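A protein record pairs a chain with a discrete description of its three-dimensional fold. The following entry can be read in just this way.
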Amino acid sequence: MTNSVRHDWQVDEIEALFNQPFNDLMFQAQTVHRQNFDPNSVQISTLLSIKTGACPEDCKYCPQSARYTTGIEKERLMQVEIVLKRAAEAKENGASRFCMGAAWKHPHKRDMPYLIDMVKGVKAMGLETCMTLGMLAPEQAQSLSAAGLDYYNHNLDTSEEYYEQIITTRTYQDRLDTLDHVREAGMKVCSGGIVGMGEQQLDRIGLLKSLANLAHHPESVPINMLVKVAGTPLADTPDLDEIEFVRTIATARILMPKSYVRLSAGRETMSEQTQALCFMAGANSIFYGCKLLTTDNPDEDSDKRLFKKLGLHPARIREASDEAQSAQLLDEIAEQASPSLFYDATTVDTKHADTTSVAH
């Protein structure tokens, strides 16, 4: 069993790993995990939707697309002051990383000053910063990096072969180019995908191959289970077998041994047993709280109970830039009386929305 970091994985190698007897796969994944991480430590992030709905993209899984009727109300870009207030509240409740997401194809030039102010303001609080804003041009990536952005999230979503079945308004290469721009600007990469979208196992393997064969592995690899939303084209997609999902997590851990593998969207419908298997398979990062942009996530109390049952604790990590490394990281979840670490832009009074930014 090797612990080396590779970037030359072949489909047949990954397929052999993925389909080995389940106990053998779990043992190998757990062994790799223990060689690189505290096996009972889970990195916890929080998420704020800073601009919701009216996205021009046609991602078939997404309730924020303007092409589908899903009941999501569109919101303009949230005011910087409100974002910073929410970040301060998150920090007070124990957050170590604050992630900001906007439903865009790409940021517009008029939005960049506000985004930069958000990054600088959150950074000044001693929090790690992360954004997901769609595609980035090289100069936009450089500007965000200069402002202090630590992480940029841009998922590959699925395999290159299945990609056009899910989205047609941007190419797979567009996504890879954005990841290159992020890396070249000196930021850390958060990139993964979604499973359960009707793809075949070879597509899940293809997604993992694309991620593992990047020149540098993403520092964070979110693996999402499709959250089916009425009104989207994938609303009636058959459920993915949960053991297949666990195999995906385990294989990601083996292929990218030093990356944080995030158990992301879809946890709301997973049993405690499935989540426990995912942690055993090497998942060591979650979003904590009741909202993931516009879809449900387990509430704080259920996460606290599960952590206590499994003997898990929040990670105390040092993976941000120098300014954030001095911040005090998460206290034990059990010590948090009533945290509320997730926020949704749809809850913000539109009277307070940034009137200088046009919804798009």
The longest helix spans residues 22-36. The mean pLDDT is 83. DSSP finds eleven helices and twelve strands in the chain.
